[in-house]
């Protein structure tokens, strides 16, 4: 009893020391529980710390459990090794199966080719084992994995006689155990093929749906692209139309400025010999009328000048509006000039 307790204590110390570099220190108690449970349920396994070399060549010191695993009393045992990766328990353990050392009187064994669960080249247990495929925390454990391996390897044992090292007669008949293994192997292969067929059909259905969805999106994007092309063409036409309108406006502006310059150059200059205009007080009785007419005439001149400046700016008034207003103002100015002249003539007549 004391020896068993000491061995268990040594196992706990070994496991705790090996778990020091692992990534999840808060889950060391769970890993320790898994290791102790699998060692208790399968006493042929023992823990150790060794260097694991991955397929890429990287080496890591990992905790592992190794030993003989008996899958059936009628079948030879296998050498099982469970490596615990640094991400355990979130990543499943790496399981390897190898032939156990056979007695000298027995034919040597090797891993069977095309085994559904074990790679015959490396001995690694594939993810096709349901327990590894459905690995999840916290329901999965090392003991559960080993039990699942026992059930799977009992149905399809991975070891087969190595015919190259022993003389085997062609007339040798298969034993009932070998016949059962072959039958189970055929059934498992048929099941795997049927599963692959179902998965392929489901995947093909999803692919067809994705193709239809992408085709619809492609058609919508093509329609949007055509609409954007039409909008760009319309904007280009509008830009050309605006450029022509601006060119026409500049042409009208140039013509108007030339007309204004020509009209200003033809205006009669003030004659120095002409008598100065009469002052308002010179016209005794008609002074208010003359003053009002003269003020209106000068106001019309100021208005015409303001309209000319507005036309030169090009933003406040159009050419047609300018001509219209100038005509009206010229008519009013004519009447004001006539009224002022009439008032002066009536004064001189008197």
From TrEMBL:
<feature type="domain" description="UEV">
    <location>
        <begin position="12"/>
        <end position="163"/>
    </location>
</feature>
<dbReference type="Pfam" id="PF05743">
    <property type="entry name" value="UEV"/>
</dbReference>
<keyword id="KW-0175">Coiled coil</keyword>
<keyword id="KW-0653">Protein transport</keyword>
<feature type="region of interest" description="Disordered">
    <location>
        <begin position="267"/>
        <end position="287"/>
    </location>
</feature>
<dbReference type="Pfam" id="PF09454">
    <property type="entry name" value="Vps23_core"/>
</dbReference>
<comment type="similarity">
    <text>Belongs to the ubiquitin-conjugating enzyme family. UEV subfamily.</text>
</comment>
<protein>
    <recommendedName>
        <fullName>UEV domain-containing protein</fullName>
    </recommendedName>
</protein>
<dbReference type="InterPro" id="IPR008883">
    <property type="entry name" value="UEV_N"/>
</dbReference>
<dbReference type="GO" id="GO:0005768">
    <property type="term" value="C:endosome"/>
</dbReference>
<dbReference type="InterPro" id="IPR037202">
    <property type="entry name" value="ESCRT_assembly_dom"/>
</dbReference>
<keyword id="KW-0967">Endosome</keyword>
<dbReference type="InterPro" id="IPR017916">
    <property type="entry name" value="SB_dom"/>
</dbReference>
<dbReference type="InterPro" id="IPR016135">
    <property type="entry name" value="UBQ-conjugating_enzyme/RWD"/>
</dbReference>
<dbReference type="InterPro" id="IPR052070">
    <property type="entry name" value="ESCRT-I_UEV_domain"/>
</dbReference>
<keyword id="KW-0813">Transport</keyword>
<dbReference type="GO" id="GO:0015031">
    <property type="term" value="P:protein transport"/>
</dbReference>
